[in-house]
Amino acid sequence: MSLKIEKDHQRFRQIVKGKIREDLRKFLTRGELLGKEGKNIISIPVRGIDTPHFRYGDNNDGGVGAGDGQVGDSVDGGDGDKGPGGTNPGNHMLEVEVSLDELADILGEELRLPKIKPKGQHQITSEKDRYSGIRTSGPESLRHFKRTFRSALRRQLMAGAYDPNNPIIIPHRSDRRYRSWKTVLKPQSNAVIVYMMDVSGSMGDEQKELVRLEAFWIDAWLRRNYDGIESRYIVHDVRAAEVNRQTFFHIREDGGTKISSAFKLCRSLLETHYSPDEWNAYIFHFSDGDNSSESDSRECCRMLKESLLPRVNLFGYCQVASAYGSGNFINVIHEQLDGLESVITSRVNSKDDIYDSLKTFFSTGK
After folding, report:
1. Residue 226's pLDDT is what?
2. Does the predicted model carry a pTM greater than 0.70?
3. What CATH number matches the domain at 190-362, 3.40.50.410, 3.40.50.720, 3.30.200.20, 3.40.50.11540?
């Protein structure tokens, strides 16, 4: 019975995943999903799915309980508003909980993203307990039932106490067997993501919301591909500063833009804390493309080519549309860094472009 229930539950989960996959482009643009994120799961409203449930008899008997009642009376006994029933169907939504790993897998399957191949040596290790044998003592939670039963059966057979017509096996204390373990070092692929965002006056709330959505899905995909992820956040106008995640997505700034300030801080961060032999590094810069000068844009490209690109798996530049920005920085990147595989750019003019932007960033499998 429990096996059948498990099969039914798995089938239900597959139906849920199918519905999410059908509407994935729409889910990618739903900012409220981020607010429903838990430690390891996220709540997603899915249309057109009913929770499996038992149904008894038919519902044509009418009534809401005992006693006299008239059409239009309030169920709770209060003064209810009387009126005709509606004629439009309701929008039935079911909120299902999906793990972030499941969500990332759906994202990868739908966008046909290849699994990322970590670069460099696996020099970072983590300790992991591996069950490797059997011993005669240990905690009851690790008791090995089959080995215990086998030992008791062997003892009774050798003693001539086993009755095939009454096959009762009673383990003694000496029959008990327990799993043993040893601590092993497990190679671990780690990655650091450095998010940089222009917070000058030309970047408004609409642009920051696009950044917030795209960064969430970037984070989900990379965490699915690596054992350990560290995220660092840099904001800049004419000066750059490292901030925490909450500040990164909610800071309000004003003033001009000097993109090279963020690139210098990023370079210092990587050189100080993240050896390229041990860390896979990803840099994502979000801006409306407005910079203080053409020469500063060229300086950014020089720093990328000489200092940053040799250390990173990928540099992704996402340019969001703004009515106030010149949008020229992406053109300078194309001019100065054309042909470099580790440099990928995308334009996001609205939430609908996030789907294609993610596919552009990770289709190379870097």
Report:
1. 83
2. no
3. 3.40.50.410
